[in-house]
């Protein structure tokens, strides 16, 4: 479906318009490293930032407890239908995975024009480079915080990177047709089989 503009996306997620918003999307499992982003908050306490976690999973109770001391800075949205449509709400998209294939959500964030901070694992370096994103080592909250701070302090550079990322993606992945194809396959898989009427 069509992506929401920033204001609409923020409204859907209940995010204030003028707030600097970090976004994270994925399953709450150890591999996806949501805890690394929660840990990074201790190095960002001086910045007026807020983090949205979209997704659910087995790690939620532990993560929610771990994030307790920053409770007023974190929103756990749970599963959001069509999450790709609200990525525009974010000032920076964080992918803090410990292991990763080629994350579709990373492509979606780039397509939405959002600056990316990502751990350099799996297929991630095939999609973005230091020219188009901030790449960090996995499992390193301090490095992750540094990269997020970089986007916060130099938004112009972050926007340029995001723009380049989008251009590369459109060139290398022919993004829109590719995502449409992916979506139709996904829909076909999800469609319940109709049982013939008795």
Main attributes?
198 residues, alpha/beta, 6-stranded parallel sheet, 41% helix
Describe this structure in words.
- The structure is a single chain.
- The chain is an alpha/beta fold and 198 residues long.
- The protein has eight helices and six strands; from the N terminus they run H-E-H-E-H-E-E-H-E-H-E-H-H-H.
- The chain has helices at residues 6-13, 34-40, 60-66, 104-111, 124-127, 141-153, 155-172, 175-190; strands at 20-25, 49-54, 74-78, 92-95, 116-119, 134-136.
- The protein has a six-stranded parallel beta sheet with strand order 3-2-1-4-5-6, sandwiched between helices.
- Strand 5 (116-119), helix 5 and strand 6 form a beta-alpha-beta unit.
- The protein starts with 5 loop residues before the first helix and ends in an 8-residue tail after the last helix.
- Total count of strands: 6
Q: If you compute it from the alpha carbons, what radius of gyration comes out, rounded to the nearest whole angstrom?
A: 17 Å
Physical arrangement of strands within the biggest beta sheet: 3-2-1-4-5-6
Number of DSSP helical runs: 8
Element string (H = helix, E = strand):
HEHEHEEHEHEHHH
User: What's the overall average pLDDT, rounded?
Assistant: 91
């Amino acid at each position: 479906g069509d992506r929401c503009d920033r204001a609409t996306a923020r409204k859907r997620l209940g995010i204030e318009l003028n707030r600097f918003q970090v976004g994270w999307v994925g399953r709450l499992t150890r591999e996806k490293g949501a805890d690394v982003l929660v840990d990074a908050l201790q190095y960002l306490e001086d910045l007026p930032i807020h983090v949205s976690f979209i997704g659910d999973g087995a790690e939620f109770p532990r993560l929610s407890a771990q994030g307790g001391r920053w409770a007023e800075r974190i929103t756990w949205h749970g599963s959001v239908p069509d999450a790709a449509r609200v990525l525009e709400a974010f000032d920076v998209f964080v992918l803090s995975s410990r292991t990763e294939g080629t994350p579709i959500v990373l492509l979606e964030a780039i397509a939405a024009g959002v600056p990316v901070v990502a751990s350099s694992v799996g297929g991630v370096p095939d999609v973005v480079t230091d020219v188009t994103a901030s790449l960090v080592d996995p499992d390193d909250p301090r490095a992750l915080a540094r990269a997020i701070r970089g986007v916060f302090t130099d938004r112009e550079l972050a926007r340029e990177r995001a723009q380049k990322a989008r251009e590369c993606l459109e060139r290398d992945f022919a993004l829109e047709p590719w995502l449409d194809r992916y979506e139709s396959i996904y829909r076909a898989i999800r469609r319940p089989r109709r049982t013939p009427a008795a």
